[in-house]
Write a structure and sequence with these properties.
The protein is an alpha+beta fold. It is about 20% helix and about 40% strand. It contains two helices and 13 strands, in the order ββββββαββββββαβ. The longest helix is centred in the middle third of the chain and has 22 residues.
């Protein structure tokens, strides 16, 4: 059984946490994030520590307790350091380029695919086969990366497509030539 919800959250010096009833506003050098506490969850803010507690001990409250602690921790981490996800493009002629704030992808289709960033997201393209997605909200960064990967997921025969950096793609063998003995 996890005890994530019981762990206090350390707040860095450059981050300000404002608790107003059941609403939390976290402000830092990279931006500002808001969160409304789930029912049965409360928060106490001491000097540099945040402590999340629950009012009941049923399974739903225990689940909300750990969830709330993780979400608030990710907010503090996001406004102080930010989050990023890296994607890699594999395939002959497959490439990415940045046009303004939009991402243009050549992925073997008859047309270029244009990807607009979600709110609070920015793209970096260090070279034609790598994409870096940067933002302060961990969930939005992951969602943007998943939507780009979904355009052309890696296929199992040649491994071509868009994949997360260091993602292992299980490869399949192709048809066996001359297996019938002819």
């Amino acid at each position: 059984m996890s005890r994530i919800g019981l762990q206090p959250i350390n707040v860095p010096e450059n981050v300000k946490v404002d608790v107003q009833g059941s609403k939390i506003v976290v402000t830092g050098p990279k931006g500002e994030l808001n969160y409304s506490l789930l029912p049965g969850i409360s928060i106490q803010a001491d000097d540099n520590l945040l402590k999340i507690s629950r009012s009941r001990n049923d399974s739903k409250s225990r689940a909300f307790h750990g969830l709330s602690r993780s979400l608030i921790y990710n907010m503090v981490e996001g406004v102080s350091n930010g989050f990023s996800k890296s994607l890699q493009i594999v395939g002959t002629g497959y490439r990415a380029q940045l046009v303004g704030d939009k991402l243009m992808l050549n992925l073997g289709f008859s047309h270029k695919v244009e990807v607009k960033p979600l709110d609070g997201i920015s793209f970096e393209v260090p070279d034609q086969t790598n994409i870096k997605i940067i933002g302060i909200n961990k969930q939005v960064v992951g969602q943007q990366a998943a939507s780009i990967r979904k355009i052309r997921p890696p296929e199992p025969y040649r491994g071509k497509g868009v994949r997360y950096l260091n993602e292992h793609v299980r490869r399949k063998a192709g048809k066996a030539k001359g297996a019938s003995g002819e």
